[in-house]
Amino acid sequence: MSSSAVYEFQHDPASGLYRPFVRESKQLLPCVAAAQPGPQLAFMQDDSTEISVCGTRGSGKTEIIILKILSGIGRGWGQNYSCVLLRSSLRELTDIVQMVETLARPVWGRAMSYNKLNHIFEWKSGEKLELNYLLDKEQAKQLFMGKQFAICAVEELTLQKDLEAYLTMFACLRGPLPESAGFRRHMLSSCNAGGPAHNAVAHRFRLSGIPKGVCGPQIVDTNGETRRMFFSTYFDNTVLRRTSPNYISTLMTSTEGDEPLRQSWVYNNWSIVSGGAMDAIFFKHSNTIFIDDFEIPATWRTFASFDLGSTRPWAWLAFAESDGTDFQYKNGRVGRSLPGDLFLIGELYGWDGTPDKGDHASIAEITTRIQNYKIARGWRFQDVQNPKKWNDMFRRNFADDAIGQEMNGYSAQEEFKGRVLINGISHPGIPFELVSKPPGSRETGFTLVRERLMNTAARPDSKIREGKGLFIVKENCPNTARTLPVLSRNPKKPDDVDPACESHIYDAIRYALAADRAPHFRSYRLP
C-alpha cells in the first residue's frame, strides 16, 4: 500500500493484469494499490470530518473508500483504529469482501484474518474493519450505539431512505486516541445521483447539475465540522479505461431509451433522478412545465390545496385554473391556455431548511403564515369602499380527509377555522374542503399528475397541445421545483410515489386534482 499517487500502470504478461507503479526518489516502484491522480488522490489527502465521493459508473468510488480505510493500518494505532463499512443490506457486501481481500491480502498476508460469521477483518496489530448494513435510525442505534470507530463509511448513500441513520453514525466517531496531524476520524460515503435520499444528499453537499472539477467547496456547518464532496468519472479511472475502453459505449447501450438513467450513470447529473417517478417527464418537458410569473386573469378560478405535517413538512399550494383565455406574463409576453389548465402560482412550505424535516409549527402558526402570505402576494386585501371588509382570492382550500378525523371532539379541520391576529387585525381561519381517498386513489393521483405535466407540451404526433396541463411558476415555487422532479417510485408499487421520499408538495397536488373544484351555488325558494 502506498501513500503516493499512481505514476503509471504496467501490464503484467504473467497475470494479464495492470500493476500500479509509484514514483519516489526518481524511481519507479511497484505497489499493490495506490490512489490514482485526480479525485482519488484528493480524497485520500482531504482532512474534512465528512468526506464523500459521487460519480459515474466505473469511476472507482468503492475502491478509494477502502483505500482510505486501509491507509490507517499499521500506523501504530492498533485497537484504537476500528472502522466500519456499511451498505443497505448484508447481501450487498460480497463484492466488498472480495475487494478488501484483493487490496489487503498481498500486503498483510496471514497477519490479516476474516471472520465470515461476524463479517470482520482483523489484523494482528489490533486494527479492525467491520462490514455491516445500515437500515434506519433505530437499527443504527441498536447495533452501533456504544461502539467507537475511527472511520465510519457508508456505501451508496442515496439508496438510504433518508439521512437519519447516516447522521446517527456520527455519534460513533470517538475513541481514546486524540486527533492529531496524522490521525483524524472521518465519516466517509459514496453515492450516485438518484435514490430515495437524492434530495437530502444534494442539499447537504450543495449539488446540482453535472459537477465540474475535482471537488466541491469545503462546507463548514454550524457546529464547526467540515464536509466536502469529490467528483469522480470513468475518465479518472485509468485502469478501467485500459481494460474496458468501450465502457462508455456499453453504458450508452444499457441506458438506451432511459435518458434520466443515462444522465446518472454516464454524466453524474444531479438535476434528475434515474428510475424516478417524474424524472423522464421533467427531463423532456421542463421548458414547458416551468413558466415565468404572470398576471392572473379576472375570469380564472383560484383555489388552494394543503398537506398537513409537523415533524415532516406541511405544504400549502396556490392554484389558478384557466377558462381558456389568454394571460400576460410580467415581462409583457402573452401566454395561451386551454380551459382547465392548472397553474401552480405560489407555495408555502413548512420545513426547517433540512430536506423532509418539518418546522413543528402549530395550526395557529400555519394559519397565520398562510394569511400573511396571501396578504403579501395581494391575494387577500381590504375592500376600497369598505376597509373593514377583506377580499380573499383563495376562499376554497382542499386537504386530505385525514385532517377531519375527530379525537375527543376535536379535529385539525376545526382547529384551522380559528381566527388569528395579524398586525392587530383579526383574520378568519382556513376552511378546508376534504378530499376522500378511496382504494386506488394514490395510483390514480400518480397517473393524473404525470398526465398533467406531460400535457404542458404537444404530443409527438401533433403540433397542437390538446390535454389539460399543470404549469409551475418556478420563481414562486422553489420547493416544488426542488422536490417534484426527483421523486422516487414506490419499490413495491411502481405506479405510486415512494412515501418515504419528500412527497408533501406532490400529495397536495394530488388533492388539488382529486378535489371537486366545480363552482358551488346556493339555491333559495322564492316567496
Summarize the structure.
The protein contains 15 helices and 26 strands.
General description of the model:
This protein is an alpha/beta fold. The chain folds into 3 domains: 34 residues, no CATH class; 233 residues, Rossmann fold, CATH 3.40.50; 236 residues, Nucleotidyltransferase, domain 5. 26% of the residues lie in helices and 22% in strands. It has 15 helices and 26 strands. The strands form 6 sheets. The protein has a 9-stranded mixed sheet with strand order 6-7-8-5-9-10-4-12-11. Strands 13-26-19-16-15-22-25 form a 7-stranded mixed sheet. A 3-stranded antiparallel sheet has the order 1-2-3, with no helix packed on it. Strand 6 and strand 7 form a beta hairpin. Helix 2 packs across helix 3 and helix 13 packs across helix 15. It is elongated and about 105 Å long. The termini are far apart. The model has no long low-confidence stretch (mean pLDDT 91).
The gyration radius over C-alpha positions equals 28 Å
Number of strands: 26
Main sheet attributes: strand count, strand direction, barrel closure: 9 strands, mixed
Sheet/helix structural class: alpha/beta
